[in-house]
Amino acid sequence: MKLRYNYRIHPNRDQQQALTRFFGCARVVYNDGLRTRNQAYKRGEPFITDAQLQKRIITAAKRTPDREWLKEAPSVALVQSLGDLHAAYRNFFAWRRGDRKGPKVNPPKPKRKSGRQSLRFTRNGFVLRGNGRLFIAKLGDVVVRWSRSLPSEPSSVTIIKDPTGRYFASFVIETEDKPLPELDLEDTDTGIDLGLSSYAVLRGRKITSPKFFRREERKLRRAQRKVARTQKGSNNRRKAKLAVAKIHTRIADRRRNFIEQETTKIVRESQAVYLEDLNLKGMGNSRGKLGKSVYDQSFGIFARVLEAKCHRYRRGFTKVDRWFPSTQLCSHCGQLTGPKGRQQLSVRVWTCCCGAVHDRDQNAERNLRAEGRRILAAGSAER
User: Fold this and answer.
1) Is 361 among the catalytic positions?
2) Which candidate in 193, 296, 365, 371 is catalytic?
3) 99 part of the active site
4) Could you report the per-residue pLDDT of 162-183, keeping only the tens digit for each?
5) Which one is catalytic: 276, 296, 365, 371?
6) Is-catalytic flag, 193?
7) pLDDT above 90: residue 158
8) Pairwise CA distance, residues 163 & 92, whole Å
9) Which pTM was predicted?
10) pLDDT: is 378 or 28 the higher one?
11) Number of neighbouring beta carbons within 10 Å of residue 278
12) Which residues, 6+ apart, have CB-to-CB distance to 176 below 8 Å?
């Protein structure tokens, strides 16, 4: 399987200026290719193939006065930037044909000068030095802050500059799955009931909701107010926008670290995981009052990371249908007597007609665990 390993890098001032030029060249190549294909489509011309577009946008453009400065950038990075455009078109057409499942895929859009910038290099564009430095074509050796060693030789590296001015090197490596020792399924499987008051309820414990965005919301509001009061194009506006970007980055870094730690802990202590499949877009739409809180939890990222780790470490993973009434169902008698709908979200403890007293979240976890076991057993029987 393929994994990404991210590390901070520290280019010097000259290298930062060179990277700025490289980012601009890659962005121009991407936008030129997008504009060329859009114009050909409007004129009714045949679809331009990838090889033809590369010759026109990169090879031929370097010989013209308007684009001769593209020679300053590494050619491998320009080719990979155009490859990103090809992949974006393929994904869009696959969704239009119905071959690609999932949410709607929009056609490619032009890249902007502001925001996150990236360059991708294949094996002929970078070298890992013996002294720990990273050599990049036409850039030189860059200092890398190695937080851990790479398990194998990387196949590519992406140089990233985030909106706060930090630089990263993201390596793609090939690695084998590392199954963890098997545990007793009856004693270590767990259902996961996701929520807002508690981030997740598992078998025997609860994960407290961190609310990273809510904690920084006041600072973010003040920083955004400063941006609105500055003049467009001024240095004060640039500084104010940088302050906003740092707050967003701090929130995202803390949330990502929280999700990685919690999912790793769940995988290590559970032989099988049963997760409810939530309608996150419906929960966080503009008509509801819980949109910020729902998106602050990042349940979608949590589910994707947890599923990937379960597959990597050979743990059972099953998603329970979103229409399964885990909250309403009594885990003792099976009657649908629990709280229903958004109107009864405040009901945290309820009593069933059979006399059983339930904690709302713990009862949902027990029901998800039972349903997950049934789905997992049915899938094993079919195989």
Assistant:
1) yes
2) 193
3) no
4) 999 999 999 999 988 888 888 8
5) 276
6) yes
7) yes
8) 27
9) 0.88
10) 28
11) 17
12) 1
